[in-house]
Amino acid sequence: MEKAVTTTIDEALCNGCGLCMTVCPSDTITMEGKKAVVTGTESLNCGHCMAVCPTGAIQVTSLNPALSTFETFEADPTWLPHGDGNIRDLVNLMQSRRSCRNYQAKAVPKDILEDLVKIGISAPSGTNSQQWTFTLLPDRLAVLQLAQWVAGFFRKMNRTAENAFLRKGLALLGKSELEHYFQNHYESIRDGLDLWEKEGKDLLFHGAAAAIVVGSKKEASCPAEDALLATQNILLSAHVLGLGTCLIGFAVEAMKRDRRILRWMGIPGDENTYAVIALGYPNEKYQRVTGRKRALVRYFSQDLKCSV
Ligand SMILES: Cc1cc2nc3c(=O)[nH]c(=O)nc-3n(C[C@H](O)[C@H](O)[C@H](O)COP(=O)(O)O)c2cc1C
Ligand code: SF4
User: Fold this and answer.
1) Whose CA is nearest to atom 19 of ligand 1?
2) CA–CA separation, 203 vs 191, rounded Å?
């Protein structure tokens, strides 16, 4: 993991307030007399010191300001204090994002795809490793190509699952995965593949005009969490930018089990894939937000009973 210190402090600007030392998670900075000094040998390079400094004395040179500049809108560079912001709008956005399964045949501009990646990477990441990766499928042709590979994987899965002898034999050995697949997915996948082959109906990507494959380098400390947190940022902001999205778990499964798909896409062997986001201009509109089925919530407390 890259931990080299890239913090620089302009001694002349430092007023000695000590705030940078207070927020630094890796003891990179200490106070010497009335000045902040870089004394640590490692840094998360999170930029907290740079963000907190009242005089602008600190630079963290490994942080790239271009990644906070967007092509399709102007971002606000000021920091939003805790308690500010509009919770009503934020929750409304979260509840209005729905998985979109009807898309217009309209291309998604490359600028928007790239802005979505930049928005994605404002998510937290384990040890600030930021080892996420984004493979952009910028047009319908690329989406269809991935769909073909995924369809090929499931065609093969279905052929294997048709073998009752193999299914039962594996189940007897305690490996009931194939039987589970047969019981739960075989039929719907067979029907989906039929519709795809005979009528060109795309039940996998739902006709999406673009897609983003979100992965992580295997060496990241929390690769799955990092990729999925970035993914949620993308889903929410895509809605605000006018796009519908849908996570395609079937594609993730195929890419996980048949690594040739990754190779075909030019994704190197030191990466795993955690999300495939179908996206495009929606051809559907809702009237209201709904709710969720349930949440299992408990308190770890002697006294409190949960009311959710
Ligand atoms: C990990 C994951 C995988 C999913 N895979 C698919 C998929 O392959 N195809 C699809 O149409 N929807 C897929 N979805 C969407 C869910 O069906 C959807 O999120 C859920 O029904 C709730 O609806 P909402 O997203 O509109 O709130 C997936 C969602 C998640 C979180
Ligand atoms: S936050 Fe800025 S002004 Fe305050 S001690 Fe650190 S470098 Fe100096």
Assistant:
1) 99
2) 10
CATH number for position 38: 3.30.70.20
Per residue in 49-89, pLDDT tens?
A: 999 999 999 999 999 989 999 999 999 999 999 999 999 99
Residue 54 lies in a domain: yes
Which pLDDT tens digit goes with each residue over 113-147?
999 999 999 999 999 999 999 999 999 999 999 99
SS3 at position 17: coil
Contact 99 CB / ligand 1 (< 6 Å):
yes
Does residue 74 belong to any structural domain of this protein? no
Distance 40 CA to ligand 2 centre (A): 16
Query: At residue 7, what are phi and psi to the nearest 5 degrees?
Result: -90, 130
Contacts of 292 (CB under 8 A, 6+ apart): none
Q: Do the strands 210-217 and 35-38 form a parallel or antiparallel pair, or are they unpaired?
A: unpaired
Does residue 10 contact residue 50 with C-beta atoms inside 8 Å? no
Which range marks the domain in which residue 38 is found?
A: 7-63
From residue 303, give the alpha-carbon distance in Å to each of 263, 297, 298, 299: 55, 15, 12, 9
